[in-house]
Specification:
By secondary structure, the chain is mostly helical. It has four helices and no strands.
Length: 83
């Protein structure tokens, strides 16, 4: 019967071969996750406060535009970055 236990070293080596697992999230990755989250939060808050969907989406859009302007113009990506 084969040994079913694995050492921590073999797992670590296997994860190093997968570059996606060892990389940390960049500021721009977080921004991409932030944008739809703002819209989901606006829907929940809109329903809780009985605000119309159009009003909630308008607020979410303004927050999204501010984040986008910050990412593109105030703190733009520099250098080649990760491919």
């Amino acid at each position: 019967m084969p040994d079913m236990t694995r050492s921590d070293d073999s797992i670590t080596r296997r994860q190093e071969n997968r570059p996606g697992l060892t990389r940390s999230l960049s500021r721009y990755d977080l921004l991409l996750a932030f944008m739809p989250t703002v819209f989901l939060v606006s829907i929940v808050v809109g329903n809780l406060l009985s605000i119309g969907v159009q009003t909630a989406f308008t607020g979410a859009s303004l927050v999204g535009v501010i984040a986008l302007v910050d990412a593109l113009f105030l703190h733009p990506p520099e250098g080649a970055g990760r491919a």
